[in-house]
Amino acid sequence: MAGETKILVVFYSLYGNTAKLAQSIGTGVTEVPGCTAILRRVPETMPQETLMQLEQSAAYQKAQEEMKDIPIATLEDLQDVDGIIFGSPSHFGNAAAQLKQFIDATVPLWVKGQLVGKVGGVFCTSGSLHGGNEGTLITLLLPLLHHGMIIVGRTYEDYSLANAGTPYGASSTSGPNHDQRPTDQDLAIARSLGKRIATVAKKLKG
To answer: Residue range 34-52: average pLDDT?
Structure first.
C-alpha cells in the first residue's frame, strides 16, 4: 500500500505536561520519512464548578492557551490513520476520565473491527515518581488489545535513557504543583517512542 503513513496522537492535558510529551512524540513520528503526525485533544467533560476553580489558576490558563489550536478528536480521526498513540495524566493510577470516555465511545469502531491491525502506543504523566505512571500506561494498553491493535512500547537500545521512562510507553513526573516540565531525557524518550511506532506502522503498511 503506497502513500503517507499517518500516526494520530490523542491526549488529554490539564497543565500542558502531557501535551509536551505528545508534541515530542509527534516530532519523533516526523523523523521517519513519509510519516505524518496528527495531534488531537479529547473533549473536556469536567463539571462546570470544578472547571471554574481550575480556570483561576494561571498555570492552567497558560497551558490551555498553548493548546487552543490543537483540534478536538473525533472517532473519524481514528479511522484514516495507520497508528494511534493515547496519552493522559495519571488520575489515581488510571487514565483521566476525559480520555477514558473518548476511548469508551469507540465501541462502534470495535464492532466493525476498524482499528484492527493499526499500531498503538501510550504515554502519560504523574505528579510523582510513584504516582501511578506504570499503572496508567498498562491500563491504557488494555483497550488497544481489545481493538486488535499491534502494541509497540519503547526500547532500551539507547542506554543513556535507561534510567527514565518505562517499557510500556513514555512518561514524566510533573511535581505536586504540576509545574515540573518533562526533562530533556523524558522528551527524548517520547520522541524515540513516536519514531519507533511510525517505523513499525510504515513497515506494516508496506
So the answer is: 94
> Which CATH number belongs to the domain containing residue 89 in this structure?
3.40.50.360
Residue-wise DSSP of 91-126: ETTEE-HHHHHHHHTTHHHHHHTTTTT-EEEEEEEE
Q: What tens digit of pLDDT does each residue of 108-126 get?
A: 999 999 999 999 999 999 9
Name the pTM for this structure: 0.94
Query: Which whole-number Å values give the CA distances from 131 to 11, 91, 134, 136, in the listed order?
Result: 19, 9, 9, 9
Confidence of residue 1 (pLDDT cuts 50, 70, 90): very low
**Is-contact 82 6, C-beta < 8 A?**
yes
Structural domain containing residue 42: 5-205
The b/e string for 65-77 (b: 16+ C-beta within 10 A; e otherwise) is eebeebeebeeeb
What total of structural domains would you count in the chain? Answer: 1
Bridge partner list, 90: 95
Query: In angstroms, rounded to a whole number, what is the distance separating the alpha carbons of residues 199 and 185?
Result: 21
